[in-house]
Amino acid sequence: MLQHTGFSLKKNLIFTLLILGGIGIFLVYLTINQFRILTYENQKTAIEHLLDIQIYNITTEAITTAKELALSVQQDLDFQHAMKFKNINTLDKHIQAQQNRYFVTMGFLKIKSIFLYDKKLNLITTNSNSVTLCQTFINEAKNRQGANRSKIMEGRCFKDGKLSLSILVPVGSIFNQLGYIQIIIDPAHNLHKLEEFFNYPIKLSDANENTLYQSKDWNTLEQAKSNIHIIRHLTSKNHPTALKIELLNNMQDFESQLNYVRNTMIIISMIIIVFAMFISFVFLRQSTLGPLQELTKKIHQVRGTSLESDEKTAGFSNYLKALASFYEELDKQATTDSLTNLPNRIIFNDRLKELILRSKRNKEKFALMFLDLNDFKIINDTYGHIIGDQLLKKVVMRIQCSLRDADTVCRLGGDEFTILIPGISHYDDALVIAKKITECLSNPYDIKGQTINSGASIGIAIYPDHHKKADDLINIADEAMYHAKENSLGFHLPNISQH
Questions:
Q1: How far is CA 365 from the centre of its chain?
Q2: Where is the GGDEF domain (predicted)?
C-alpha cells in the first residue's frame, strides 16, 4: 500500500510537470504564431505604404515632364506668332511635332491629346477626336479669376471609363497672354514602372474593369496561395475608382523564412522547457519525495520488525502508528515553518478567519500585529545566514515570552511575523503588548560570540474598529508597520476614526 502511494506521488509529480511543460510549449507556439501574423501584416503594410509613395512619385514625375514639354512649346516664337493670329495650319504642325519629341519617343510620356485655346479658353485646334475629353477641367479653368488665369493648372480627367492627367499652360506673358496649351497624358503608361521598381507583377484596369496592362506572370501568380494582393485606386472628382492598380507579392519565400524562424524558436523553447522541467523534477524530488520516501522506509522497518517477531497484532498496531506519524509529518511540513516551528501563512490565514467569526459571534475585539525586524538584511549580509537563522529563533523565543497562551504568532517568511491577540477590551491593551515586545526585542543578542543589535517595527490593526474583513485588516496592519519603521516609532496604531 505504501509502495503504491510513493509511486503515485512520483508519478503525479512527473505528470504535473509534463502538463506544465505542455502548457508552456503551447503558449510559446501561440506567441510565435502571433509574431508570425504580425510580421506578415507589417510586411503587407510596408508594401502598401511604399506603393502609395511610388504611385505619387510616378504621377508627379509624369505631370512635371508634361509641364516641361508644354513650356518648351509655348516658348517657341513661331508657335507664339501662330497663336496670336490663330494660324491653325501652323499650330497643327506644332501639335504634330510634339509626338516626335524626346519626351514621347523615349517613353517618358504617352500623349493622348493636345488642345490649343485662346485667352478666353475657346478651342482653337486639337489633334483629338473628342473636344470634351477634359471639359470639366476646362470649365474649372474658365472660372479662375485675375492672376490665377496666368498660372499653370493640373488635374485629372475621367471620360468613357478611363483616367487622364491634364496640364494647362498659359502661352505668352502675363501682360500679353495669347492663349493656352493643354496636354493630356495617359497615367497608365507611366505606372508600368511599378513592375520594374517592385519586381512584382502588376495589373492596371480602367473603371469598367478593362485591363490596360498586365504582367506576363500575373495569371499564374494570382492562383498561388501565398500572395499579398494589394489594390489601390487613382480617383477623379466624378469617379472614386477611375484607375485600378493591383500588385501581387509572392510571399512563399518570406513565409518559408518565417516558418523556419518559428520552428527554430519552438525547438529552442522546447529544449529550455524540458531542461527546466528536469531541474524542477530533481529539486522537487530531493525536497519532497526524499523525506516522504524516508518516512515510508521507516514505516516498512517497523512493519518488518513486527512480522519477524511474529507479533501480528502488535506489528499492525505499530504500522498504524507509523502511518499516523507519516501523515502527521506531512501535515506539519505543509503548515509549519521549518526554521522556527511557528505556524506559517496558511495557518495564519485560517486562524485569522476563525478569530473574525468568533469575535463577531461573541462581540469581542482582537488585535492583529505585523512585526518586521529592523536591519535584518544588513545582519544577514554582515554575519551570514547561519547567524541570521539563529537570530530568528531567538526573536521567536522572546516574542512568545511576551505573549499569553491564547495569543498566536506566525512567520510569514523572511523576518516578517504576524501576531493575533484575541479578547482585548480596549486598543490600549494592544499598545501595552506591542511596547512589551519591542522593548524585549531591542535588547542585544549573543549569538556564537557575536553581539547582535536588532529591534522591531510593529503595525497594529483592531477588529472591528479598523475593519471587519481579513484582507483589509492585513493591509492596515502592514501599512502601519511600514509607518512605524520609516518613522522609527517602534510600533504604530493608525487613527481609528479614519477607518
A1: 48
A2: 364-499
Whole-number Å distance between alpha carbons of 308 and 359: 55
Half-sphere exposure of 233 (CA within 13 A, CB side): 12
Hey, what's the cell of 437?
A: 515586545
Give the count of alpha carbons within 13 A of 479, CB side only. Answer: 10
- Phi first, then psi: give them for residue 182, nearest 5 degrees: -115, 125
Cβ atoms of residues 291 and 32 within 8 Å = no
Contact (CB, 8 A) for 381 and 313: no
Q: Please answer whether residues 412 and 347 qualify as being in contact, where contact means their C-beta atoms are separated by less than 8 angstroms.
A: no
**Grid cell 510580421 in the structure block, residue:** 39
Angle at 332 between CA 328 and CA 335, to 5 degrees: 135
* Cβ partners under 8 Å of residue 338, min gap 6: none
| Residues β-bridged to residue 417 | 371, 411
Active site residues: 415
Q: Give CA 248 to chain center in angstroms.
A: 30
Cell of 378: 544588513
- Residue pair 366/423 in contact (Cβ under 8 Å)? The answer is yes
Contacts of 483 (CB under 8 A, 6+ apart): 459, 489, 492, 494
What's this model's pTM, rounded to 2 decimal places? 0.50
Domains and their CATH numbers in the chain: 75-189 (3.30.450.20), 191-250 (no CATH), 337-498 (3.30.70.270)
What residues form DSSP beta bridges with 293? none
pLDDT (tens place) for every residue of the chain, 499 residues total = 444 444 456 677 677 777 887 887 788 778 877 887 888 788 889 999 999 999 999 999 999 999 998 898 888 999 999 999 999 999 999 989 887 776 676 778 899 999 999 999 999 999 988 766 788 899 999 999 888 888 999 999 988 888 999 999 999 887 888 999 999 999 999 998 999 998 889 999 999 999 999 998 888 777 766 678 899 999 988 788 889 999 988 776 677 777 777 788 778 877 887 787 778 777 766 666 566 666 666 666 655 555 555 555 555 556 566 656 655 666 567 788 989 999 999 999 999 999 999 999 999 999 999 999 999 999 999 999 999 999 999 999 999 999 999 999 999 999 999 999 999 999 899 999 999 999 999 999 999 889 999 999 999 999 999 999 999 999 999 999 999 999 999 999 998 776 6
3-state secondary structure of 335: helix
How many Cβ atoms sit within 10 Å of the Cβ of residue 388? 22
Q: What is the number of other CB atoms lying within 10 angstroms of the CB of residue 297? A: 12
Report d(CA 342, CA 353) in Å as an integer: 18
Enumerate residues 6+ apart whose C-beta is below 8 A from 459: 369, 370, 476, 477, 478, 479, 480, 481, 482, 483, 484, 491, 492
